[in-house]
Amino acid sequence: MKSVLSVALFILMLTNVFCQQTKLTVSEHLKSAYDVQDSVMIKTRDGASISAIIVRKKGVSVPKPVLFQFTIYVSPNDLKSLEKAADNDYVGVIAYSRGKRFSPDEIFPYENDSNDAYDVIDWISKQNWCNGSIGMYGGSYNGFTQWAACKKMHPALKTIVPYVANRPGMGLPMENNVFINPNYEWSFYVANNKYLDTIVGNDRQRFRKMQFRWWETGVAYSKMDSIDNSPNRLFQRWIKHPSFDEYWQKMAPYKKDFAQINIPILVIDGYYNDSQNSSLYYLRELQKYNPKNRPYLIIGPYSHFGAQRKGAAVLNGYKVDENALINTPEITYQWFDYILKNGPKPEILKDQINYQVMGANEWRSAPSIEKMSNGYLKFYLSDAKSQKFYTLSSEKPTKKNYLSQEVDFADRSISNNDYYPDPIIRKEIDTSNGFTFISEPFKEPLLVNGSFLGEIKLSISKKDLDVGVTLYEVMPDGSYFHLAYFIGRASYAKDSTKRNLLKPNKMESFSFYNTHLVSKQLQMGSRLLITLNVNKNAFSELNYGTGNEVSKETIEDANEPLKIKWYNDSFVKIPIWK
Q: Are 98 and 126 in contact (CB under 8 A)?
């Protein structure tokens, strides 16, 4: 199984670029052409210090708009990005999260960035080289810090351009209340020193062995760092908050915080960005609480890194369409010129939502994510057989029935829920456990457009379980094209902020919707296929179903297998464009 550990590899691949060092070196060329302030310290309201670098073109005395990056990553390439800003008639500023570079404070990723971003923006706005207009940009953690800066809006912040933005507690380090492993090693990488601990970051073998050792021994998830013999203070901090509680809520805009975000926003993301549900969470909440703000989205077949750069011609084995590749840095500057200098709007922005249709070699646009589709295909997870699979039926079953599954959490020879999209196209899928449902072949081409959703009806012998649902296109040649997936904890399906345990052996239902968005042209003769399973593998927290704190459950809680009845009036809804 290709694991969600790949998320960590995406992040840690930065180590090929970022160097562990004591300072950034300002070249003689940079000194000759630019005014560089590389040791700026900015005081926050609560007395902390933020380390920053400022680059301006020499000989320019007129105040300019400022392009601001706020990041936890300290990279020698930072100077190049600031130089580019100056070359494009802006002032370039980069500031590092509290505790990084020259900041003497302790490092706590995510926790202080909202307030600190406001203070840095306030400081920038008062400098004589700033004309009062500030834009922010960047990806991943840098995308998160832009939204964090919007929790309390500063009047000088005029626009943000977040790519593949993280939303702590909503994607990483947990997805739909299930802790996943990538941020475990990332916490050492970013917090072991003032720069980046590339020695730890490159030691992927160490963490891979650790997680499989955890899996094999069955110790509590909270004890994973005891296997590694290296205390992980951030991991321990995070797992104390399995609910999307105030700890996570205060890191970025939450609910009514979105109502006061009135600046123009351009979001760039990818269908195969692992943290896509984080990034699109911000957009959906903004539309919910402030429908008058109509942000722009560009999305296509890109990974976490590809969306931040120029994409990749081949993504997880899939050769993307010729017109799918974009130039994110170029579009970013076009956007800043549009917003901050009254330049032309980037040509790619035909409407608010701009998306590449995989398999059609075309771009389309829509006024909102919801209007990417104009209908749904509703399929029931039937107990009727369809050759080696079960039927994905458009007709509601006339007789209520169920499929039975038994999961032995003590048996570590079996992993469940192979959902990760690498490769995107595969010849076979794992059908050794769980259930697989397939539709009839489509008699005409079909455009799947948006995020699928559904309702699971079940009864279980315990009090909780983690569920995986994966959507594929089965192409006419029999190969499987991975479209989207969902993993989540049943006890949090109704409310991510409060756990509601299931009642053993009682039929219950829960809805799921926080799945990955996709656009794919299906061929005539293709089918849709759904896999349904319990999430049990070495790559995320293991929910034994006792109802106790999941991170403290152990293999000793696996005395009795989990017995599930999956009812045949469960359904999925696939968004389409007719």
A: no
Average pLDDT, stretch 43-54? 98
The closest alpha carbon to 160, from 259, 73, 252, 262, belongs to 262
Dihedral of the CA atoms 297, 303, 308, 312 (nearest 10)? -110
pLDDT of 529: 98
Percent of the chain at pLDDT exceeding 90: 92
Helix pair angle (141-149, 276-289), 10° resolution: 20
Long-range residue pairs from 283-291, CB within 8 A, at least 24 positions apart, any chain: 283/369, 284/369, 285/253, 285/255, 285/258, 286/253, 286/258, 286/261, 287/368, 287/369, 288/258, 289/255, 289/256, 289/257, 289/258, 289/259, 290/258, 290/259, 290/260, 290/261, 290/262
**Of 424, 537, 566, which Cα lies nearest the Cα of 484?**
424
pLDDT, position 16: 38
* pTM of the shown model: 0.94
Q: CA 545 to CA 466: how far, in whole Å?
A: 9
**Length of the chain counted residue by residue:** 578
What letter does residue 416 receive in the DSSP assignment? Answer: B
243 DSSP 8-state letter = S
Single-letter residue type at 427: K
Give how far Cα 414 sits from Cα of 180, 386, 417, 481, 487, Å. 19, 25, 10, 24, 18
Q: Phi first, then psi: what are they for 360, rounded to 5°?
A: -115, -10
Per-residue pLDDT tens digits for 230-270:
999 999 999 999 999 999 999 999 999 999 999 999 999 99
- Please report which confidence band the pLDDT of residue 14 belongs to, taking 50, 70 and 90 as the band edges: very low
> Which amino acid belongs to residue 238?
W
Residue 380, SS3 per DSSP: strand
* Confidence (pLDDT) at 20: 45
* Burial class for 511, CB neighbours closer than 10 Å (0-12, 13-18, 19+): exposed
